[in-house]
Design brief:
single chain; mainly beta; four-stranded antiparallel β-sheet; 1 helix; about 45% strand
């Protein structure tokens, strides 16, 4: 089981690189879980909430929010979110574009384009558990005052 202080430590580790970009790009990272509740109309409502504890196997959603707090557009914005060893990547969150991923922290691409080298020197197709970092590149300059967010799903190992 991981408690709130441990979640804070994992979050700090992932936010540190995302926030490393100084200047007018403001980046925040949060870890959320899905909370399901029955609605009066019989449907199930799903809300993203901050977890008080997370246990191995629990799904978590990483949300990376960004905002241009400067007066000029920002070009070539890249948001990189390294994954702690305790986290296994699963997929982009619904409604969020798929990130490029890396299995070595150097080469990024779609998961199906990456390979992992085995101890015997052979290679195999990379899988979600091999992902060490996720990255998004904004396709166009981020206008002054503009903001957005990306999210991906992961599982606590």
């Amino acid at each position: 089981m991981i408690t709130r202080p441990m979640i804070a430590a994992v979050l700090a580790a992932t936010a540190a690189v995302a926030s490393a970009a100084a200047g007018p790009l403001q980046v925040t990272s949060s870890i959320l879980i899905e909370s399901r509740a029955a609605a009066a109309d019989g449907t199930t409502r799903i809300a993203l909430v901050k977890p008080s504890k997370v246990t191995p196997g629990d799904k978590v959603i990483f949300v990376l929010s960004y905002r241009n707090i400067g007066a000029q557009p920002l070009a070539n914005v890249v948001l990189d979110n390294p994954l702690p060893r305790q986290i296994a990547y699963r997929s982009a969150n619904p409604g969020s574009p798929a990130p490029d991923v890396s299995v070595d922290g150097k080469t990024f691409g779609s998961l199906d384009s990456l390979r992992v080298r085995s101890l015997d020197g052979s290679t195999r197709a990379a899988g979600p558990n091999d992902v060490t970092s996720v990255r998004w590149r904004l396709a166009s300059p981020l206008a002054a005052g503009s903001q957005g967010q990306f999210a991906f799903q992961a599982v606590l190992k």
